[in-house]
Amino acid sequence: MRVGTGWDIHRLVEGRPLRIGGVTIESDKGALGHSDGDVLLHALIDALLGACALGDIGKHFPPDDENLKGIDSTILLNRVLPLLEGYEIVNIDCTVILEKIRLAPYIDRIRESIASLLSLDISSVSVKAKSAEMMMMEVGTGDALIAQAAVLIEEKDSKEDLYWV
Length: 165
Ligand code: MG
Hints:
Elements lengths: L1 E13 L3 E3 L2 E3 L3 E3 L7 H13 L5 H4 L12 H8 L6 E11 L9 H11 L7 E6 L13 E12 L2 H7 L1
Parallel strand pairs: 5-6
Antiparallel strand pairs: 1-4, 1-7, 2-3, 5-7
């Protein structure tokens, strides 16, 4: 088994859509970014790459790559999944830290979205939302948001090996 963690932060500005975990969230502000700014999928991608010691999202998708401008982050996640060859994802646990936007009504949709993107059962995908309690500078004032992700991956067939030992 191997573990990976990911972390990301994006500024929130008017005139941008807000995407979290592949789900569009109703909000006056959206995440600024070279891609669609999906902070949760970016943290998740970093966690998956980290679990395989394959660097980070910036190494695989350089922010100056014009082809990636405005790209849907679900496409980025789909491009990362083949790199996990030989491993399967056991479970994922994520936290989104943001102010003013209530994520509670969207949590299960975000879990379903990530579960579907990763071909996992929804019981293996945990998504939590947390307020910054008006601290943490821009996050506390609702002008930025943060996501953290942890992932456990397991070598395929490792369970079968155990049965034969
Ligand atoms: Mg990002």
